[in-house]
Amino acid sequence: MKSSILNADLHCHSVVSDGTLTPEALARRAQLNGVELWSLTDHDEIGGQTAAQLAAKSMGLSYLTGVEISVSFASKTVHIVGLGFDPNNAQMQAGLKATRGGREERAKEMSQQLERVGIANAFEGALQYAGNPDLISRTHFARHLVQSGVCQDTSEVFRRFLTPGHPGFVEHRWASLSDAVTWIRQAQGVAVIAHPGRYDFTPNEEFALFTEFKAHGGQAIEVVTGSHTPDEYVEYAAMAQEFDLAASRGSDFHSPSESRIDLGALPWLPGALTPVWELLEDRVL
Ligand code: AMP
Ligand code: MN
Ligand code: MN
Ligand code: MN
């Protein structure tokens, strides 16, 4: 497991959050695509972990527990992936429950904003796509806006709606960076900054994020992810080395029809980096 040449896919979503496949179907797809080490990382929710772990085990596929926690940092939403933690940890479970808590209210406000621009009943529409009503997300609104013909595809949705400055965007207070990293750490997991290239931070804000993340005990960043361009693989490989952080690899797969990069279909992690799985050898199930 020491090598960077390992088909590890440590970031994807099931129907337990905003993916369209069950944990079992994802496990099967991962295995068919040649994944050697897998993790299901639903947003703010670990309800799919047992099913994912059992399915992986039945296929002889190595598995790490996973989650992607929504965090508010510098007036933006940042995602922190946790890997290899104990899913029965009570503090982690309570923290995730609190983080999920405001989603329904937020979704109703998003719907009211959409109503004002002539899109009625978006909350009810989005809810139909949510496999888990506790975890209604912008992705479910996006699917509804596409299926009801308001937009051609989800990228048009996020260009015209649901993002800052557009109808359907509601400021929301998620977990703090310190809380999210602490929940993961005290449940014996490793904290990873998800897709750092996606946040549009200034260099100063990004420096603050990396520095504070490390100070709280964070240990890795995603370098090769479906959310980065090839230029960003190079940029964040350098950042991992500069900040002495391990590197992760994950597709961020959500759906066969929506995701650009399939499970297991990423380039290798650059060889000079410390793969995050080196820190997690004793946590593999
Ligand atoms: P939420 O947690 O409700 O804010 O929803 C965030 C989710 O929306 C992300 O995890 C993505 O799945 C999806 N998303 C956000 N921005 C985009 C985008 N520009 N294109 C496609 N999906 C997006
Ligand atoms: Mn998502
Ligand atoms: Mn994310
Ligand atoms: Mn994700």
- How far is the first residue's CA from the last residue's CA? 13 Å
The secondary-structure class comes to: alpha/beta
Output the strand order for the largest sheet: 4-5-6-7-8
| Fraction in helix | 25-40%
Report on the architecture of this protein.
- The mean pLDDT is 97.
- It is globular and about 55 Å long.
- The protein is α/β, with parallel strands linked by helices and 285 residues long.
- The two termini are 13 Å apart.
- The chain has a five-stranded mixed β-sheet with strand order 4-5-6-7-8.
- Helix 1 (23-32) runs parallel beside helix 2.
- The protein is built from ten helices and eight strands.
- Helix content is 37%, strand content 13%.
- The chain folds into two domains: 8-99 and 173-283, Metal-dependent hydrolases (TIM Barrel); 103-160, Orthogonal Bundle (DNA polymerase, domain 1), CATH 1.10.150.
- The structure holds adenosine monophosphate and manganese (II) ion (3 copies).
- One manganese (II) ion (MN) is lined by residues 11, 13, 68, 252.
